[in-house]
Amino acid sequence: MDDNKGVHKISINGQDSGSLAEKGEKPGQFNTPEGIIASHDTHHIYVADRGNHRIQVLNPDLTSFLVFGSKGSGEGQFDEPWGLAIDSDEFLYVVDSKNHRIQKFTSKGEFVMEFGKTGEGTLSSPAGITISHKNQLYVTEKGTHSVAVFDTEGHFINRFGRHVSNPDYCLKCPEGIDFDCNGLLYICDYFNKRIVVY
To answer: Does the keyword Repeat apply (predicted)?
Structure first.
């Protein structure tokens, strides 16, 4: 889990088995960490260090493995990175929130591509991201109160959540998002103070 200063490693019974909780700009220090995800293959832990505008990669024992990114709008730069996802080929997707885009990287932090800045799939204040069993990316957008869907090459597929026939499924500033093992999609509907299940 993360908090406003660092990362905590919690056992399944709730015991803290390690933490990095020092605020700062050095490797292993954080400033408002936001997104976190672990690789099933390498077991590295990726953290969106939002206030430092970078991604930190930790070893399972929480020692620093890799840090990449800086503030800006160029390739591999960030303006408040938020959600993170890893696909079946170990590519990392970073929600670059204030640059209104998704950036794709190798597991070593090498820039691959960006998407979400133009066309039908133009993003507005994206926040959360997850990957379906079909390898499709689902991105929550606070600016459009919806979820945008892309393939892993950045091609836009569709958008839902703002204008739906059932008002119970209308979203307002959605943030966190994830699938369960049965394929159900759970969305943190922030301003409506609820979880919506699709």
So the answer is: yes
